[in-house]
Amino acid sequence: MTMRGLRFPLLAVVTGATALAAACTAKPGSATSATSATSATSATAAAPRLDGAALPAIDSTRLIGDLFRLADDSMAGRATGTPENAKARAWLVGEFRRIGLAPPGGGYEQPIAFQRREGADSTRGANVLGLVRGTRDPARVIVVSAHFDHVGVRNGEIFNGADDNASGTAAVLAMAAYFRAHPPQHTLLFALWDAEEMGLQGARWFVAHPPVPLASIVANVNLDMVSRNVADELYAAGAAPYPQMRPLLEALEGRAAVTLRLGHDTGSGSENWTDQSDQGAFHAARIPFVYFGVEDHPDYHRPTDDPSRIQPGFYYRAVRTIASLVQALDVAVSDWGAR
Ligand SMILES: [Zn+2]
Fold first, then answer.
1. What are the residues facing 129 on neighbouring strands?
2. Which residues pair with 124 in a beta bridge?
3. How far is the CA of 201 from the centre of ligand 1 (A)?
4. 291 in a domain, yes or no?
5. Ligand 1 geometric centre to CA of 34 (Å)
């Protein structure tokens, strides 16, 4: 997520992917979930919602494990153009292959190149792309995405980017596995963008050089920072510029396993998130989007955005809620006319 005005309350700290994975499905009020995510914070923390029975089942241990792997110091903050970014990317390609996604025409990697400043040398990177073909109308494509890069090392400190955006990246892997096992009606193109932190470069390159006809892309669901919020709140932006998304999101509010808030998609300034992450590239091409993300927290774009600070219960329930939106969108776009 590119920079925006900072507002935030205090947060507790936890340790260890396994312990956290266990906290994913812990009942609210039990030792694991309470102590790990909310007890140290102020009385404002909302009780997590329980009703998620109808939501897609996600492998919580792998979800948390993947986030820890991507946000480990050994990935050195995954800055575009670095060996560690390439290492993260190679692992992600391996995961797409393991899950059984089909590579779009050009393969799992889509090389990108861009100039950061006038006259500067090209910066190179690559997006990671994979498909689950639709069973009923495969010619229509929904892009489900998240950026995997982060800002790297600054002044000798590693910015691990656990929430920004190892959380969205691991969530895309989890949803790819779910929909591989539960084939959708329309084709889902799972995309992990590079160089978001350098100006949405990976997503912009994709829209300018799409591996499928741009007109066949009916919607984008983009995730950026989805693993922690003391009020148990997840935002969904996009219903204002794309009213066809509103009934889907309002229905989702009723079955969400977190508190879903619609907004941050009108007006100007930092309160409008439309162009603050990769959905902005799709919006520029007038492709309807839904962006999922949380309000800023104290570790945003700081070296303290570490895996130990995510909230596993919230994260797990947020990902299941987002997967449920993708499921509903897959059904709904059948009735959408050509874009
Ligand atoms: Zn981000």
1. 191
2. 113
3. 12
4. yes
5. 27
Centre of ligand 1 from the C-alpha of residue 135, in Å = 32
DSSP collapsed to 3 states, 278-304: CHHHHHHCCCCEEEEECCCCCCCCCCC
Tell how far the Cα of 220 is from the centroid of ligand 1, in angstroms: 16
Question: What angle in degrees, to the nearest 10, is found between the helix axes of 312-332 and 60-70?
Answer: 110
Q: Give the sign of the dihedral formed by CA 91, CA 96, CA 98, CA 99.
A: positive
CA dist., res. 250 & res. 260, Å (int):
9
DSSP letter, residue 44: T
One-letter identity of residue 106: G
Between the CA of 207 and the centroid of ligand 1 the distance, in Å, is: 18
Q: What is the CATH number of the domain that holds 297?
A: 3.40.630.10
Report helix, strand or coil for 145: strand
Query: How far, in Å, is the centroid of ligand 1 from the Cα of 180?
Result: 26
The rounded Å distance from CA 2 to ligand 1 centre is: 6
Ligand 1 centroid to residue 191 C-alpha, Å: 14
pLDDT above 70 coverage of the chain, percent: 84
CA of 9 to the centre of ligand 1 (A): 20
Number of structural domains found in the chain: 1
Q: How far is the CA of 30 from the centre of ligand 1 (A)?
A: 31
Per-residue confidence at 54, pLDDT binned at 50, 70, 90?
A: confident
- Residue 250: inside a domain: yes
Instruction: Compute the CA torsion angle 296, 189, 197, 149 (nearest 10 deg).
Output: 100
pLDDT in tens, 150-194: 999 999 999 999 999 999 999 999 999 999 999 999 999 999 999
**Domain that residue 93 falls in:** 17-34+44-114+124-335
Whether residue 64 lies inside any domain: the answer is yes
The whole-angstrom separation of Cα 141 and Cα 289 is: 13
**pTM for the full model?**
0.88
